[in-house]
Task: structure prediction
Amino acid sequence: MKVGVIGLGYWGPNLVRNFSAHSEVTEVAASDIREERLKFIRSKFPAAKLTTNYNDIIEGDSDLVVIATPVATHHPLAKAALLNGKHIWVEKPFTASIREAEELIEIAERKNLKIFVDHTFIYNGAVIKIKELLDKGELGNILYFDSERINLGLFQKDVNVIWDLAPHDLSIMSYLMKGMKPKALSATGIANFNGLENLAHINIHFEQNCFAHFHVNWVSPVKIRRMILGGDKKMLVYDDMENFEKIKVYDSGIEYKSTETIHEALVQYRIGDMFSPKVNQTEALALGAKECIAAINENRQPLTSGYDGLDVVRLLEASDLSLKNMGKMIEIGDSLLVT
Amino acid sequence: MKVGVIGLGYWGPNLVRNFSAHSEVTEVAASDIREERLKFIRSKFPAAKLTTNYNDIIEGDSDLVVIATPVATHHPLAKAALLNGKHIWVEKPFTASIREAEELIEIAERKNLKIFVDHTFIYNGAVIKIKELLDKGELGNILYFDSERINLGLFQKDVNVIWDLAPHDLSIMSYLMKGMKPKALSATGIANFNGLENLAHINIHFEQNCFAHFHVNWVSPVKIRRMILGGDKKMLVYDDMENFEKIKVYDSGIEYKSTETIHEALVQYRIGDMFSPKVNQTEALALGAKECIAAINENRQPLTSGYDGLDVVRLLEASDLSLKNMGKMIEIGDSLLVT
Amino acid sequence: MKVGVIGLGYWGPNLVRNFSAHSEVTEVAASDIREERLKFIRSKFPAAKLTTNYNDIIEGDSDLVVIATPVATHHPLAKAALLNGKHIWVEKPFTASIREAEELIEIAERKNLKIFVDHTFIYNGAVIKIKELLDKGELGNILYFDSERINLGLFQKDVNVIWDLAPHDLSIMSYLMKGMKPKALSATGIANFNGLENLAHINIHFEQNCFAHFHVNWVSPVKIRRMILGGDKKMLVYDDMENFEKIKVYDSGIEYKSTETIHEALVQYRIGDMFSPKVNQTEALALGAKECIAAINENRQPLTSGYDGLDVVRLLEASDLSLKNMGKMIEIGDSLLVT
Amino acid sequence: MKVGVIGLGYWGPNLVRNFSAHSEVTEVAASDIREERLKFIRSKFPAAKLTTNYNDIIEGDSDLVVIATPVATHHPLAKAALLNGKHIWVEKPFTASIREAEELIEIAERKNLKIFVDHTFIYNGAVIKIKELLDKGELGNILYFDSERINLGLFQKDVNVIWDLAPHDLSIMSYLMKGMKPKALSATGIANFNGLENLAHINIHFEQNCFAHFHVNWVSPVKIRRMILGGDKKMLVYDDMENFEKIKVYDSGIEYKSTETIHEALVQYRIGDMFSPKVNQTEALALGAKECIAAINENRQPLTSGYDGLDVVRLLEASDLSLKNMGKMIEIGDSLLVT
Result:
């Protein structure tokens, strides 16, 4: 399989490295309009075929085109690649709008091509372990999902903090809580500097009695990357800043007893043991590349397909709409596409 | 000065202990309808005058009536005490509605009596130190205020988690950011058990370009009590769960440079030193009792007056309204009272 | 049962409170030469019989005499109490020398009286839980025991840091590793101020292939109270400064494989899950008082008897000898007493 | 300048990378007897000249020979390189004995060649910052130095845990406390597996009234890399496992007041503010390479010269002697060399 990477910014070199290391990849090509990025890639990966013209990739002999450019360019590049018969790998967020995502999915379906969206945390050892625990029913029913991803981070010039950071958390939530249906969403925040929100909160109500909250922030003095999943049996904390104990499962919880006398205490809490499972350390990107190539070879949807990308874009678009309307609650529509 | 305490639940004994220890207090009376609570108080404070009838306090010879009962009873008890010519101390939240708060303030003003609202964190060493730093301008302009108070906590049967926990954080915010004017507020959350929200988020927009967010939660497996104040000069984290380094001031921040070329990076961040000031360990309640009695003696408003109580109730009432309207943004009205 | 407490310094009030609360204790008497301490106790415990003369306790009608005075006075007070037919409770360390401890044990045996030594951590929920885990063989064979108890602490004027802090750790080790026999010990340290060591390290070799180390320190800027037990199956960390996860059991360890070729790696390590059991929060002193009175009633040795006190004093005396001889390794003798 | 690296194990690739990136280095050669290591280096650094024969390096045209092989081979390789007129860079520990270190220093002095010993932590941003603080007298006189470097680590087959881990800590101590003279040392520990100590403690007494302690351990379930420097003005904690606040300076300490009455408290403690300075993130190895090449160019001793290597080896050799004599205190001799 031949792979062509478009965009060699922060993430691009990792993509080139991982595809170069994959046993089924026979050639890696890469393009960037900036000569100095090509020079950097050349010094690290002398075997890569480099070009300043992305059309050399889109029209070349790559089987898979990897798009790692600013989000505004995802749709035109991805569409051109698909129309040239290429499978595509797109960095998160998938596209800048629902409409764009739907069009790409339609083309891919029509031409039987695969779309892989790089929701990289889905291939992270901690998230895989949490999914395992959830699938075994360890937590019971999920009451709420709370996520915080805050840092003194690089400001983006083209998108606000939601489009920059929240795709990670929204994709993790969608993956872990598959089967739960977001019903409505509101988003609030503030733009202190350049007109783009640098801090935002997203609140999601589900059709089930469940609630999710996301805090994303570029201007925090401390770095926090933490999720809490409150289940009615157990609760889980995933702290990505911990070196060794990233996941903690608490055998603590709430016991709800219906009693005849309304005046008695109906809700009690219980403190129990805590358990921290070992987490696999394999690089997420390596597992992602493996899944993408396997899905192409086996002619099946990858674990993080265009549909998953669309699910996230739908929440992002609703967030923008809510932000523009003073935090108004926005209903999350169903996809017109058949998954 | 004679002090009478009504309500000897969780907090009552601390009130009796602190007023008993105050040098100007010559007598402490206390009442509770539960005999076993009186017995408990008698074993600890043999000198206290005890009664099961709160009217013995309201109509007795106390100069100051301390009200530590469920919030629904604050207004009738406080009103009766004021009408009997007593100064009052009311536990947080001040009242169950704006209307109730305004009425109490009016009566007190008319009769020249003092209302002390026990926003106890205002007398906490860490909060006092933060106020000091803010007043010196250490942080510059405040861009945002973020607060988290979550725990596996006791469910209240009469109020939701906002009325239970948020008064602490809202009163701290009001005190620290005096001069900043809340313009509108939204609140979202979920009631997983008994119809009262057990998890909620409050978002506040200010007339100044500033934003505040509060997360309160009774069903978290981990206990977090943390505030972040993002300033344009420095940033501060107050972590009340830390034993020794409760306040950390980060000489880190954002530098905004307007440039002629829009395409250049306009916002940069800077990492610097961190400083953790020593915090005074005096019990907040002792300082509160001292301030209350001093205000009465000096015939002046205490630091946490009825007006401050009203400010918090106004935000609580707006939160309820927003919760009932799917997170709708609610405008915060001005007080009709003259402060 | 009647209880008389001698010495009302830092710990004395806790003793009076716990014995006063015990259902079988009908009277608590207490003495201190300092009038202001008696006044303080009177205000808190109006029912206690107070005296400035400790002989009123020793010669009075107490069944149990509790000695909470400086260590140098333990032996004469305890001896007088035993000779007056009283059971005794002695604060740690039991005595100032092996010889003193042996004499007290002999008298108590002869007169069939009980000696309870207040190794309070043996009644702490975390230590009880660790003992449970060890007794079930969870850790396998213990390879080493490492203890750190450091703080910016109050300097004692009569004893060095080893006699002040190490009794806690030595008693915990003796209890947890019952059956392991200390063979030799060395101690090093430094006296930076008043001639008494303010920082010291104790190293113990066991007859089994096991090693223990203790760091005690009055001049540390940070407070650490941490023990590590390295087993050949699992390892355990006990961090007393943690609020919620005091014990962590690591399913990690060392695998030793004997191979024929000496040049191959013989030792490997393994990272596994971690487990943090719930710890009982009952006050240790309440459990200690209960055990002491039960042992008297049942005419049996308490869990922390004079023999246990002697075991610790033996290690303290050896530490002093080693300190005076530049850290020389001192052999730990057997007791001449029959346990 | 041409550089030749012998030994391409764990650390070798970092050495090749850093010298390759140095602006004054025109050629990097490297050797290892293992073909697969050469293959690995070739894939990363296509420009490096590779050989399986280390004599190609020693007898080749390198100006500087970098020795990154097991410690037993340091002396023969370094001696051969010096005799061939090469400057040398030797990984820690410098040599396996004092005698070997002294011989290498003598040869280098005679032939005016430079010896750089890679005490890499001396070029670490945190250690550089601590040195700065000490040189300004921030801490006052150092009362004690305490170091802990424990982990579930790779067992070495040729050396015990002291020779593996303690060179880091001993070199940091020697550097920070330049001017303090170690007088005597004892070491204790245990070999639970293969005859080599896997856990050890080193205690050092200084001619000044100062004490140092080092705990090194391959079998700890938790990873700790922490140093405490207790000064009589301030105290400092350096925690290398912290991501952001590696250094904390505590304005806390001990106040010693001589009084006439011996019975009064003579020593008091004081709690104050804490300060955590920003630490430079430049890779230590890059700064080390720069210093080494600068020292050669300027014909001066590097910051971490053979003499510094010898200081550490002297402490390691004394530790071995003490370990073999049941923790006997060993006097630290003066160097016969003139520094």
Remarks:
- Chain C touches chain B at residues 46, 222-223, 241, 243-244 (CB under 8 Å).
